[in-house]
Write a structure and sequence with these properties.
This protein is an alpha+beta fold and 140 residues long. 60% of the residues lie in helices and 16% in strands.
């Protein structure tokens, strides 16, 4: 089971992760998640930056466990898929309310378009996760 420093190294080695270097820390971002290491204390934290709202939140204990169990890349994919499913359920509810309340066709089309985009992203990341899992099985 990887520790946080191992996860940070995995993120740094991942060519899809975006590297951010600030005066106080260095970080790697991918699919709405950021792992950062402070220079002065070597403290490593994982932050969710895609949950919405005006602030970021640190990963919950269960999310940290997912990272520890699956590693950086697979955990990112699993948590991104979970986030997409949550967004889809909210959008479906919003579409149903819009239809019931007889809102404009333009609003409903916009919501459906957003839903289609999320579904495309979901399917793209699902295939990446499956490919990543196959590669992990081959290397083991």
């Amino acid at each position: 089971m990887p520790e946080l420093r191992d996860l940070f190294k995995q993120a740094g080695d991942d060519h899809l992760s975006v590297k951010i270097k600030e005066p106080e820390f260095i970080a790697h971002m991918m699919y709405g998640w950021r792992i950062s290491k402070e220079f002065h204390s070597s403290n490593i934290t994982i932050i969710c930056i895609s949950s919405g709202g005006d602030f970021y939140r640190e990963a919950t204990e269960s999310e940290y466990n997912i990272f520890r169990e699956l590693g950086w890349k697979s955990a990112i994919y699993v948590l991104y898929l979970s986030n997409c499913r949550s967004k889809l359920s909210k959008l479906d509810a919003r579409i149903n309310v819009s239809i019931v309340e007889n809102e404009s066709i333009r609003t409903i089309r916009k919501l459906k378009s957003s839903r289609q985009q999320i579904l495309r992203n979901l399917n793209k990341v699902k295939s990446k996760l499956n490919k990543n899992e196959q590669n992990r099985k081959i290397s083991i």
